[in-house]
Amino acid sequence: MDFKAALDKINTEIAALPLNGNPKELYEPISYFLGIGGKRMRPVLTLLGCYLFDQNIDKAVKPAIAIELFHNFSLIHDDIMDNAPLRRCMQTVHEKWNRNVAILAGDITLIQAYEMLTYVDEGIRAEIYAMFNRTAREVCEGQQFDMNFETQPEVSIDDYIAMISLKTAVLLGFSMYLGARIGGADTTEAQKIYDAALNMGISFQIKDDLLDVFGDATKVGKRVAGDIVANKKTYLLLQALEKADEVDKARLQQLMTDNCISEIDKVGAVMDMYNKLNIKQIAQSAIESYFTKALQSLESIAADEYRKLFLKNYFTELLHRES
Amino acid sequence: MDFKAALDKINTEIAALPLNGNPKELYEPISYFLGIGGKRMRPVLTLLGCYLFDQNIDKAVKPAIAIELFHNFSLIHDDIMDNAPLRRCMQTVHEKWNRNVAILAGDITLIQAYEMLTYVDEGIRAEIYAMFNRTAREVCEGQQFDMNFETQPEVSIDDYIAMISLKTAVLLGFSMYLGARIGGADTTEAQKIYDAALNMGISFQIKDDLLDVFGDATKVGKRVAGDIVANKKTYLLLQALEKADEVDKARLQQLMTDNCISEIDKVGAVMDMYNKLNIKQIAQSAIESYFTKALQSLESIAADEYRKLFLKNYFTELLHRES
Lengths: 323, 323
What we know:
- Two copies of one chain form a homodimer.
- Chain A is built from 16 helices and two strands.
- Chain A is an all-alpha fold.
- The first copy, chain A, has a two-stranded antiparallel ribbon with strand order 1-2.
- The model of chain A has no long low-confidence stretch (mean pLDDT 94).
- The interface between A and B is large, with 38 and 37 residues.
């Protein structure tokens, strides 16, 4: 099963979610936000994780939707916290409606995630609930670390990797763990697939940082170099601060605190610095290094090589994505 | 077991919650907010509900905390949505920290509620999860209806009762249902106790509306008549709009849209109208009527009369509360 077949199953299930509840002011935003789409990477990973161990993936579909709902909950709330006007070229919930609607729509989406998770078979339910709760908590912790970084004077690359592990990668790890366990993998094999997805997630997030600056705006669906404008401590900026000599570091810090410079000049100046310091290549090499770790974990799993191939292809697709 | 013994058990368990996690920016607000205290009515009801059917209530304590955590989640988020500066005489989370901290602290508190709920015995776990999810969703729906009322031109008394049932009463119903089921009650008896707590909850909320206007500010812990200042469509206001003749109704509506009148004059004028229309007595009689229904449901339960007495006493305590 390739990822497109998995994606079709996910989209069909999402289209059938009962989101016509009352009051409509609460359910319309949820329906709208789910409709924006996106890659559905997490539920696809759940299905591909299940498929590694069982050809019948139907029982993984509803639990996979739980992950997608959880992800949507965190996006809706993160968008409020980040004051983000757009998500995938569409207005965010707090922008289209208002902040209160977005808070509550996020809350309900989280509750719906728990509702969908009840479809996990009884034999593994307690384990999956415990792990989902832990993962959910970690994602929130990651978001808080990310917000802390805004005002924290020194952030190391290690701090950054720890933060994106929590904020992004553990949920990818759990997505695949969940699928593998539903497919019948034992906890040891499932842990390997967790590790694979975790490293893929770190690689994915650094790629995200890279695309923000060096990606094609029409494909990325957000404002170009929004991270630079917002002084976001991305992998790129942290590497630049680490690699720069005293003069360049001071210049970078000055650019971040300069309230008079125009956005376009600021982006240009920071990008010049990134080019001078070879930041694109450094990031690219980190992306590949975490990606290699992910593939190694995947190799070590005791599953059919042919089936692994679908997963490898999907990982590769994510590595080469332009948005 | 009287409610004070139950409350002690709850407070001991809350004090032992692991809230020293990282990042501290996330866990400190949760710890702070739980520390503000409050009546702990919901977990106390869980313990008293359990005690009706089983003298050993220990296994109900952690699930009871799940309810208190859920309640705290909804308060933290509601306070943001309502722009409330104070809760029980203390600063709200978004006021003491900021809005983003409050969103995330609420999210984690909801996740922790789910974590504590995993302590329910396996035999009833699927049932309890399903009911908790339904209740959680209903509470959010109630909050959205409440917000809708702000701009909805006509709100009937029935609309209002439906809203407070969702926003407040179903959680009380579930609190007791949970306790009863943990104590060994069958679903029929547990449903009776759910109905009792539901009606008690409606009674409780109307009392809340009454205390806002006619309560003692030093005891209530919020600003006096804050509901009048905010034009909140409370039971009192809706009854006044229904009972008033055309002239008085127009006067009330004019007071609600008058941007020039001082707060103190507005409160005084609305209270005069309430007094003229006998609103305090009307509310008091509704409180007693729902309270009577609650007691009738309680009477119908097949449990020891002596043990029921503790619950009746607690209900009565809530009916006569001044804050």
